[in-house]
Structures are given as C-alpha cells and as structure tokens.
Amino acid sequence: MTPDLMDAHAVYVDMDDVLCHSTRAFLRLVERRLGRCVAYESLSTFDLGVSCGLSREELDTVFGMFHSSEELLKIPPIGENIETLRQWTSRGVEIAVVTGRPTRAIEASVAWLDRHRVAYHEFVVVDKYRRFVMDRRAVSLEEFSNRRFRLAIEDSLDMATFLAYSMATPVALLDRPWNRNGTLHPRITRYTGYLSFDLLS
Ligand SMILES: [Mg+2]
C-alpha cells in the first residue's frame, strides 16, 4: 500500500447519479405517474421540477413515490463506480457516502448499498438542498462544512461549488446533462466516464 493512501482522509461520494442511475429512475416515474416523457439529455438544470416542467405538486408527488422503499430499492446501480470504491477501500481509503435524500429514505438507502455490496465506512445524510423533510439524523450544511475530505465526487454543481469554495475540497464533478451550464470553481474538475483509481493519484 502506498503511504499517501494509508494517510488518506476519507473520500466523499455522493449516492444519486454517482452510485446509481437515480435520475433515469425518476424520469421513468414521471412517465408512469404523469404520462410525460422527458429525455435524459434534455435535463438542463439540477432542479428536476424546472428540468421536467413539473408543478410543485407534481414534483412532490413524484418525489414521494421515488423516495418509497419499493422504488429506491429498484434503482439500477452504476456497477463500474461501485467496483472502483471496492478497489479504493482495499487500498485503505475510507469512503463516506454522503446523500441529500430525505431521512425517511435512510433505511432503504442503506439496504440498497448492502444489496449491491458497496464498500463504504460511513453513511451521512446532509440537508444539501433544503427541499426535503429531514429529522435529527440529518446534518445541516453548516455543521457538515467542518468536515474535511481528500476528494469529493458529486454531480450537483451547487454542492460541488459549496465543497470547493466553503470546504476547500477538491471535487470531481461527474459530467451530467444538468451540470454543464455554469462556471467551475478552480478546485472542481469535470470528470467524464466512470470513476477510476487515477482520481486519487
Ligand atoms: Mg447526486
């Protein structure tokens, strides 16, 4: 094991659209529930209400379904990224899975991670977007900003900017249709393709 990996701080890994195809699953629910077909590549902003042209009520309805245990457990994994986490942990890197899902989704989310044998050390719910109901198990952004990570992996440009600017954390922003507009902080690097071991070198 190389010394730099032994001394590593934890790596922050977002869950939705990093470890699983959440947005594709969300779009299937929009079609099933509202009969509206929205193309993945047309999602120009992270706000799915805006991107999909949903009213507040429609958005709440679809998110209500999406965050049920039944639907969460069905979300397909991104196997290549999960495999990279296994390689990292086998080299002594600590992984913190950090999600902005509502706290009612905790049990199903942990069950999903177990089902897909995701290697991680810590599961944290952070109130990233202030849009869901959170109980006391969630950490506020302010509280979370005291943490330090050697690297963060995100698909949300807003959260990536917070990590880079307020937490001085280098961020790999996984290239997705909804994060292509906007300026990247110098600590953010756009990353196309699957996670690889090179990210930690
Ligand atoms: Mg995400």
Largest sheet: 6 strands, parallel
Global structural class: alpha/beta
Uncertain residue ranges: 1-7
| Rg estimate, integer Å | 16 Å
Q: What is the CATH topology classification name of the largest domain? A: Rossmann fold
| CATH C-level category of the largest domain | Alpha Beta
Q: Helicity level, as a percent range?
A: 25-40%
Strand order of the largest sheet: 3-2-1-4-5-6
CATH architecture of the largest domain, by name, is: 3-Layer(aba) Sandwich
Question: What's the CATH superfamily of the largest domain, by name?
Answer: HAD superfamily/HAD-like
Tally of strands: 6
- The total count of helices amounts to 9
User: What integer is the average pLDDT?
Assistant: 93
Strand percentage, roughly?
Answer: 5-15%
End-to-end gap: 13 Å
Shape: globular
Multimeric state of these chains? single chain
**Overall tally of domains:** 2
- Ligands bound, unique: magnesium ion
* Secondary-structure element pattern, one letter each: HEHHHHHEHEHEHEE
Descriptive account of the structure:
The protein is of the alpha/beta class. The protein has 2 domains: 144 residues, HAD superfamily/HAD-like (Rossmann fold, 3-Layer(aba) Sandwich), CATH 3.40.50; 51 residues, no CATH class. The chain has a 6-stranded parallel beta sheet. α9 links the parallel β4 and β5. The longest helix has 13 residues. The protein is globular.
